[in-house]
Amino acid sequence: MPKNLHDNHTDTLKFVHITDTHLLDHAEETFRSLNTKESLEAVLSHIDRRYPDIDFLLFTGDISQTGNEESYALFNSVIQQYDLPIYCVPGNHDTPALLQQTVPNCPGESINIVELGQFSLVLLNSWVEGEHHGMLSHRCLQQLDDHLKYSEKQFNIIAIHHPPVPINSSWLDEIALLNRTEFLQVINKHPGNALLLFGHIHQEFDHQIDSLRLLATPSTCHQFNASSSSTHHTETSQPAYRYIKLCKSNNINTKVHYIE
């Protein structure tokens, strides 16, 4: 069982970052010849064996490939086998209102802040209807600004689907977070320990901007080649996830695992 994350004396947090599961509507369906339900199950099984004492799972969008109700029912059938808190944000392929029915903490028009003792998990919705790029509303940027202003003594874990920085892949940079400059300005206004996690790019990414660490995690299905000008998948589609251990002192330990 997970520890009491609301205990103010908790100074260490251990969790797993999962992203871009791209589940379809039926268990037997495949996405580019890969069964995404089975690849997600393989990832979760590996996590359960290797990290039995984590505090929660964090999903950063594109839970579904279709955005249909059936795909979220499939997601629910998989995650309900694990006795862990589940947090998520929507991706461009998702339907946020339907995803919220499965994971109620998924943010909608407002940001969602989960207090975890000395840590805060800040969930952001960058989904734009009918588009692949992302955008944060003025309302959400103001709410984020207000939260960071009064939580500088906490360790803030900020989760979003779309990348807020260029990743040197021109086609992905074109469908990233459009108002990323404004977003990063809000974060950089407030000193303090912060980690920013995102998905969308189907590859590893690790970048530092002043005191802010930015991490992206490969998909649980297909991966994209790094530094590519167009959509190219890696030759092998090994599903992956990222383990993260945080200490209040801004010590961030992380490892990406690829599943055979």
Present the secondary structure layout.
Layout: E1 12-18, H1 36-50, E2 56-60, H2 69-79, E3 86-89, H3 96-102, E4 112-116, E5 119-123, H4 138-149, E6 155-159, H5 170-173, H6 180-188, E7 194-198, E8 205-209, E9 212-216, E10 240-247, E11 251-258
Parallel strand pairs: 1-2, 2-3, 5-6, 6-7, 7-9
Antiparallel strand pairs: 1-10, 4-5, 8-9, 10-11
Helix pairs in contact: 1-2, 4-6
Give an overview in words:
By secondary structure, this protein is α/β, with parallel strands linked by helices. It contains six helices and eleven strands. The protein has helices spanning 36-50, 69-79, 96-102, 138-149, 170-173, 180-188, and strands at residues 12-18, 56-60, 86-89, 112-116, 119-123, 155-159, 194-198, 205-209, 212-216, 240-247, 251-258. The strands form two sheets. A six-stranded mixed beta sheet has the order 4-5-6-7-9-8, with no helix packed on it. Strands 3-2-1-10-11 form a five-stranded mixed beta sheet, with no helix packed on it. α1 (36-50) runs parallel beside α2 (69-79) and α4 (138-149) packs parallel to α6 (180-188). The longest helix is centred in the first third of the chain and has 15 residues, at 36-50. The model has no long low-confidence stretch (mean pLDDT 91).
Key structural traits:
single chain, about 260 residues, alpha/beta, six-stranded mixed β-sheet, five-stranded mixed β-sheet, 11 strands, about 20% helix, about 25% strand
| Beta-strand percent range | 15-25%
Query: How many beta-strand elements?
Result: 11
Figure out the total of helices. 6
Shape field: globular
On the 0-100 scale, what is the average pLDDT? 91
Spatial order of the strands forming the largest sheet: 4-5-6-7-9-8
**What about the largest sheet?**
6 strands, mixed
- Which class best fits the helix and strand makeup? alpha/beta
Percent range of helical residues:
10-25%
Order of helices and strands: EHEHEHEEHEHHEEEEE
Uncertain parts: none
- N- and C-termini, Cα separation: 28 Å
Radius of gyration: 17 Å
